[in-house]
Amino acid sequence: MEKPLIAVTMGDPSGVGPEIIVQTLADPELNRLCRPLVLGDRGALERALAITKLPLSLETVQETGPLRREPGVIYLRELTRLAPEDMAFGTPSAAGGDAAYRYICEAAQLCLSGEAKAMATAPINKEVLNRAGHHFPGHTELLAQLTGTDQVVMMLAGERLRVTLVTIHEALAQVPALVTRERVLETIRITDRALARYFCPTPRLAVLALNPHCGEGGLFGDEERTVIAPAIAEARAEGIDAVGPLSADTLFHFAVSGGYDAVVCMYHDQGLIPLKLLHFDDGVNVTLGLPIIRTSVDHGTAYDLAGTGKASAQSMKAALVMAAQMAAMGTGTGKG
């Protein structure tokens, strides 16, 4: 089987994206799994190679790259030629934000056309993305618009734990009103379809409660009885293996022990605290519900480390490996 082409976006050129990409692509294992194509800036990548002192070379390609690839070569589609001041380490610029936007759009188009089988993204700066005139809270919302997708779900994943989120970047005080039956049900559905297609044929899902001790019979809140349990019942009527509501203070022990394939969480920190406790360095952010495969690092631009060569590339490598694995699984049959 032909190795899948994976579009790798360089992210914010002032951050650690270029460095963690070249470190990742120095691993020959990646070339055995897939054909990475970096979408970015030659100057930024050349600088990253100089910093990391890796024995790699860059080859600029206009097409999606040769099927037969030389070892030690990074294949690049050069989309920008940024001035040094526009990619100064730790100093994000509007030009850099616009560049990051262009890399994402190109990767999405490659995936939509079928030329690329997946995309893996390095971190961006949401503030400079908006300063450049692209008004999106982040990758997820931009990709939803580019692909015409109404409902998406954020999944954070590692080898031991996967979590998906009903609500993401909202104030904690707003979460109860946002946890609706429809939103919980749609999160369960999207999680089930994606896991069945890309990870395991018959997913077992745990759905968490919102309140401590599942509301303790209504003493601490009744969202479990009025919202979450009805959503789970409807999902089960559709043939989805989902159980809950389950108390978050004990559930993760059983999930990590192999009892469940993913945990549906009601809010950001409920899922990300245990995930990052286990997978701080190698966690992967996956956008579920898109018509394309998108994985990403589970960290930010790390401006304090940019230019030092000290940033860990584990999450970038894990994102690329997961993208390749999902691409291979997605060619088969499933519920997605």
UniProtKB/TrEMBL annotation:
InterPro entries: PdxA, PdxA_fam. A divalent metal cation binds at residues 169, 213, 268. Pathway: Cofactor biosynthesis; pyridoxine 5'-phosphate biosynthesis; pyridoxine 5'-phosphate from D-erythrose 4-phosphate: step 4/5. Its cofactor is a divalent metal cation. Its EC number is 1.1.1.262. One of its GO terms (molecular function) is NAD binding. It is found in: Cytoplasm. Pfam families: PdxA (PF04166). GO terms for cellular component: cytoplasm. The keyword NAD applies. It catalyses: 4-(phosphooxy)-L-threonine + NAD(+) = 3-amino-2-oxopropyl phosphate + CO2 + NADH. GO terms for biological process: pyridoxal phosphate biosynthetic process; pyridoxine biosynthetic process. Binds 1 divalent metal cation per subunit. The keyword NADP applies. Keywords: Cytoplasm, Metal-binding, NAD, NADP, Oxidoreductase, Pyridoxine biosynthesis. Substrate binds at residues 139-140, 276, 285, 294. PANTHER family: 4-HYDROXYTHREONINE-4-PHOSPHATE DEHYDROGENASE, D-THREONATE 4-PHOSPHATE DEHYDROGENASE. Catalyzes the NAD(P)-dependent oxidation of 4-(phosphooxy)-L-threonine (HTP) into 2-amino-3-oxo-4-(phosphooxy)butyric acid which spontaneously decarboxylates to form 3-amino-2-oxopropyl phosphate (AHAP). Belongs to the PdxA family. Homodimer. The active site is located at the dimer interface. This is 4-hydroxythreonine-4-phosphate dehydrogenase. It comes from Geomonas limicola.
